[in-house]
């Protein structure tokens, strides 16, 4: 007779404390409702070629039992999409109607618009698009709930501010529901890894971060930062990093068995994506430029290593302060590389944490919103309607032609377009530096700022 009560208590523990608190539950649920309404107003009516491409590759796994061996990248995400297609199959049109062959791989520039137009013209397209984005919604809400758990010990108003931001994050809504990309797969797992490490579930944290790497390659940059903080002992740090890299190694081995190539990072040298991390350079008198992001990243790792070894500072970095270091790492990542707008969703969980845990960082929210404006303006300038107004093609096919874009306005003035891009990049770097300044000042001092809120161990 006690089993239901036991199950009830176990289930309650899965709900973040702020949602169990009578003082905060009502307002948090209200923001949840607002966020869901906004998501439902976007998700069924937008589509991008990028979203269709990943689902087409994943449909080969789901229905044909094969992989698209010319693009074995982010395979964890592709397998997740494939499972989603099978689970959501009753809600979708027949696969042979939805995922026609061949796709556009022989001439992506010429064929992508035609394939996308044919996709949009299928019966019940609004329901189809909503269904395809349900996995993104699930990971989005998972990330939000874990963030709620991470800020549970903060002041109620700070918790609400963080949650409201997550529900209405403009770049999160753009990346996940307008552009239709799976950034939340990796973001949610990074947040889970951070939560697990703060709760001293270190090996679960390593596994979560490792799975995140299979979803998106960028979390591999976080492995050294995590490993240097989770334990002061060198062998334990190495073991933690090995566990975090194990899922990625498994994917590489699987790729080799299925397609006789490791795929993943081996493909980056063939695409512009691989050069983005090396885009910002300082030329020297001689061969070999200095890569600014690599310099920044190695410097950050070095400072954390020095703290862990006791070379300087106030001892090893506390696990509860790891998120501040990750905020700075992501700030450097975006300030010193080139990137597509939807990638900027990776930054959002650290903004959410800062809004709750560092109430003295009063400019954080406004600076982030200005970052988003610049990022979307850059997307409009460089990508044109396919990354902005044209995403609403299912709702209004002529919208892309009816609303002018920065790319269109400056199409006949290439020098002005280049200057505009430079101005936007410069503005973004300045905004990112200003946003990260309180975090950098805190890390320099070695102590949280006055009024900072961190969870107890």
What this model shows, in words?
The protein is 64% helix and 1% strand. With 457 residues, it is mainly alpha-helical. It has one domain. A two-stranded antiparallel sheet has the order 1-2. Helix 5 crosses helix 13 (202-215) and helix 13 (202-215) packs parallel to helix 15 (234-259). The longest helix is centred in the C-terminal third of the chain and has 32 residues, at 414-445.
Separation of the first and last Cα atoms: 35 Å
**Main beta-sheet strand count, sense and barrel state:** 2 strands, antiparallel
DSSP strand tally: 2
Beta percentage is: under 5%
Order of helices and strands: HHHHHHHHHHHHHHHEEHHHHHHH
Mean pLDDT: 90
Rg from C-alpha positions?
Answer: 22 Å
Number of helices: 22
Task: State the low-pLDDT regions, or none.
Answer: 1-8
The helix content is 55-70%
The helix-and-strand class reads mainly alpha
Strand order of the largest sheet: 1-2
């Amino acid at each position: 007779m006690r089993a239901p009560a036991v199950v009830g208590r176990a289930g309650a523990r899965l709900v973040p404390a702020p949602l169990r608190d009578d003082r905060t539950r009502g307002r948090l649920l209200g923001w949840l409702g607002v966020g869901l309404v906004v998501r439902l107003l976007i998700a069924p009516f937008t589509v991008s070629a990028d979203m269709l491409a990943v689902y087409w590759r994943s449909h080969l796994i789901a229905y044909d039992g094969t992989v698209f061996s010319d693009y074995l990248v982010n395979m964890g995400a592709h397998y997740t999409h494939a499972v989603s297609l099978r689970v959501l199959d009753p809600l979708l049109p027949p696969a042979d109607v939805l995922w026609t062959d061949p796709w556009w791989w022989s001439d992506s520039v010429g064929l992508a618009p035609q394939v996308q137009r044919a996709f949009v013209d299928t019966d019940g397209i609004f329901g189809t698009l909503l269904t395809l984005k349900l996995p993104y919604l699930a990971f989005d809400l998972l990330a939000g709930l874990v963030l709620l758990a991470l800020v549970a010990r903060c002041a109620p108003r700070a918790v609400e501010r963080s949650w409201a931001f997550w529900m209405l994050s403009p770049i999160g809504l753009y990346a996940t529901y307008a552009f239709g990309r799976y950034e939340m797969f990796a973001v949610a797992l990074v947040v889970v890894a951070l939560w697990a490490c703060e709760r001293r579930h270190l090996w679960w944290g390593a596994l979560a971060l490792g799975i995140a790497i299979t979803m998106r390659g960028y979390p591999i940059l976080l492995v050294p930062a995590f490993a240097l903080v989770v334990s002061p002992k060198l062998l334990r740090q190495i073991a933690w990093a090995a566990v975090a890299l194990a899922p990625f190694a498994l994917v590489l081995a699987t790729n080799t068995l299925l397609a006789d190539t490791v795929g993943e990072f081996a493909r980056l040298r063939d695409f512009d994506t691989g050069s983005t991390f090396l885009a910002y350079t300082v030329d020297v008198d001689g061969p070999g430029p200095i890569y600014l992001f690599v310099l920044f990243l190695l410097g950050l790792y070095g400072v954390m290593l020095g703290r862990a070894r006791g070379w300087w500072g106030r001892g090893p970095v506390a696990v509860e302060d790891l998120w501040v270091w990750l905020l700075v790492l992501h700030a450097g990542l975006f300030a010193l590389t080139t990137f597509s707008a939807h990638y900027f969703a990776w930054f959002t969980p650290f903004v959410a944490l800062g809004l709750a845990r560092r109430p003295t960082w009063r400019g954080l929210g406004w600076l982030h919103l200005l970052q988003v404006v610049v990022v979307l303006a850059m997307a409009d300038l460089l990508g044109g309607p396919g990354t902005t107004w044209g995403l609403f093609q299912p709702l209004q096919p002529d919208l892309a032609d009816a609303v002018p874009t920065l790319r269109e306005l400056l199409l006949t003035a290439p020098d002005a377009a280049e200057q505009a891009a430079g101005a936007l990049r410069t503005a973004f770097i300045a905004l990112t530096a200003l946003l990260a300044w309180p975090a950098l000042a805190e890390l320099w001092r070695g102590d949280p700022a006055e009024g900072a809120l961190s969870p107890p161990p």
